Fold these 3 entries.
Entry 1:
Amino acid sequence: MNKPRQSPARNICPPTSSIQPDRAEDWRLHGGFMAASWRLHGGFMAASWRLHGGFMAASWRLHGGFMAASWRLHGGFMAALSASAKN
């Protein structure tokens, strides 16, 4: 006879009614702590990403200018090389 198999998730996360009352309270406290810490963490991340974004925007602009200049120089050098190779 084939018995319906329980999903592994059911074994890992037992229903709340099967958790002892003191354990349920621990989870509620832990959940509240996590919610609060994620809110704080989220605020910090939002601020640091804004700062990081500004820095990246500035450095990419500088980097882009450098790359544009160096590619122009590189292109001129390559053009000169290929012209001298043809002669």
Entry 2:
Amino acid sequence: MTKSHITRILICLAILSTQAHAKPTELFDGKSTAGWANPFDWGEVSVENGELVLTGSPKYFLVTERTYRDFDLELEINVPVGGNSGIQFRSHYRRNRLWGYQAEVDTSERKWAGGFYDEGRRGWLVPLKDQPERQSAFKNGEWNKYRIRAVGDHIQIWVNGIQTVDAHDAVTAEGHIALQHHGEKGMAYRFRNIRINEITRPVTLTHIAFGSCAKQDQPQPIWFSVVKQQPELFIMLGDNIYGDTEDMSVLAAKYGQLNAQPGFMTLRKNTPMYGVWDDHDYGVNDGGKEYPMRDESQQVFNDFFRIPEGANTRRRPGTYDSFIFGPTGKRIQLILLDTRYFRDALVPIPDDQKDTLTGRYIPTDDQNTTVLGDEQWAWLDEQLQMQAELRIIASSIQFIPSEHGWEMWANFPHERKRMLDLLAEHDHCPSIFISGDRHLAEISKQTIRAKNGDYPVYDITASSFNRPGSEQNKTEPNKYRIAGENYIQENYGSIQIKWRGSTPKLTMLVHGIDGSVVRKHVESFR
């Protein structure tokens, strides 16, 4: 059995892997705040008698330096009567702001200590109203022992040995542990014996594959080549089917045809799969926010990709999402963009220019138009602040190329610039776009000036699984193209990652229908 096969099994079955006999890790050494940080501009943290002591105002959080996924956490907390606190888990933060899951610590008369709260997002998930047995677990004015177990979407909380929460929620799979001081002046909140037992440890990824454009009713032999390569993750980049309909039963049936393809079935059975949509699986060619069935289509998309209830794309408009894989020092952030749901209309090529330009569209000069929409842009800004050693951004349409007249980010120059400006601001790790749509494959590179110097941004386009491009595409201009001319036959892409400490060396590949390498670029980062 190969190393890649073993890694894929570990990822697929992670929540089944337990370390019941592993020795818990001490998150607090009783002497210092090593391993913790205060991302707020206020609040005082000290160590007294083997206890972490939090004081100060307004509300703030002391946060672990690393993130945790599936775990069993235990700690003791002492909060004065009149105080309010919480134990955060799977949480995220930026300066002076934190959001994520919380086990409530409540000394008020309502007695909701041990409840399940979503700080900075949805509010109460499991309040303990009218549950006297659970409400009696917490003892005011005493040390209280909390236990939090999070495995997959299963969240359990105990207070002094009494279970107060047994719930399922899939919004956040990984994040920081944090201790809250609610900001009550003059009150000291004390924590001790903070221990965690990681149930599944993050798996280091070394091989990711991706591709786009699968005509569901045509042969798809390329899947067997992908299976032989044994990627640890596979990312569908849109036009996953050719739906082109406002009838959701037709759309679902076409997804069913893809799912019945033997090679695809084998890949999906053995490899974690993520996806974005493009126009044809969205429902209309070159479509954007004007498509009347976009909400219904999103539900069909979610069903096909088996998105769990409560997950981000089940509870908000748009299919965008983000995931982090791997341990600290080898983290890969996967950002899945939605370039359809919110996108404004494209500008057609004027009749008097059709003889001199290729494609259908020209760049807009309307600064009020958008690709991602305000909410997705705000979300993306937060995601780009997350700590990782490599960032992969899935966009159904090409990001770097800018000279053809088909769909691309360059049709909205102000949106493309906005993205580059964000990447320049958050340049703490390499950024690789992966894209589809074009029925050709190519590797593009644009170097921008960023906060820490020159910053290369890549775009690996992989398209199509079973619909080759035209000869005309071979000569298409692209001043950013590297690794030879574009490739118009059936193809898929991959990224192989070789870690040198926390620094990735990337081999970016385009594979032909038989799995052979047809385009290649190697980049070492420092």
Entry 3:
Amino acid sequence: MELPPGCMMPKTDSQKVCKLQKALYGLKQSPRVWFGRFTKSMRAFGYHQSNSDHTLFLKKKQGKITALIVYVDDMVVTGNDPEEREALQGHLSREFKMKDLGPLKYFLGIEVSRSKKGIFLSQRKYALDLLRETGMLACQQVDTPVEEGLKLRIESNQVPVDKGRYQRLVGRLMYLAHTRPDLAYALSIVSQYMHNPGEQHMNAVLRILRYLKSAPGQGILFTKNEDHQSVDVYTDADWAGAVDDRRSTSGYFTFVGGNLVTWRSKKQNVVARSSAEAEFRGIALGVCEALWLRLLLQDLGCVSKQPIKLYCDNKAACDIAHNPVQHDRTKHVEIDRFFIKEKLDEKIVELPHIRSEDQVIENPKKFLLLSSTDTQLQRSKSFRFGRVTVTGIGKSMNSLLKLEEEVHGMDSVREILFAVIEWAITFAAYNNLVEFHFHRDSIAQKLFKNTPNEKI
């Protein structure tokens, strides 16, 4: 440490230092000191910290609630008490130098849009900036973030790449995953090679960027729902998917009121000896997330007596969770087993078995919407049914959502395609902005076996 400019003493005093009376910008202690100062001010004004998230401050008064979330010095205030919101803003203005930016539109790189259907979150500007900085704006786009059947590993003769650039790209893509659950699995794979990336690993990262180019405005739509307090969790696992150490990757999607709120794809710390064990450890991870969400909802005043439903498509894993009998093949996972069984006995969690085709975590793209410019929310919508992909482009979000409801209620692929074509003709006549692309595969060939290619 050195004395600041202008305070230099004679050479005889060169060993002297200054003792700081308060935190200065740039010191490692400064964020903690600032947050302590802010917390003290909020508590003095009658707010309390949430037990589930210490950056969330709440105040309940006469059946109404006001909430403030803070990230360093950026804050968002919401609630159903307008008078309390104004009082809080006045208090913060007196305590700190701050600026009211009005209704929430942009926060930490996340764009917020509103419509009659709900609230739409995306990171379109962030994604386009990333593509521009990496020179990928004109790249050839792909339909998936990970090549099918890709197995990355560290090779002894692999071609080295710029380690710093690799880490920066993965780090920036990880931040983009805050509104892009479809990137979670791909990023969980490439992030395992941050210490020693090779050419094949860099190519996998560049493929994610090419996938990002196909729809930089994708995001998540939070819609209104009468059953807004229901919590559903879907878990899944990729058994022994890592070639280097044969560890499994588990993941979960959590829904509150039918809206996707949290997701995760994480490599397990131990080697699973069976697919049931890998799925079982994934269930334990999902239960932990469900309990945290339950605590957060309680802090927000949303107390539901309904048990949390946790869905798994592995019947053996569900049987292990419900059956307290210890077996030689499962006793090494007894901590997870007793933890899950305890929550099942307390009726906090239910664990119904679902079919693999109903497992929503298999296709995170179905929860994403594509954004547009100006005041319009969505211009595109993608549906994937097996190997048949349908993409529509238009201005009307209502028509797209109506199409989604019609399509999801049909069983036949033929009916789906015909419904899309009928909708496209009607919509194009009104907007003149629709185009559809059909990928011809074995299913399409059966549907249109007597139709020339150009007609399809």
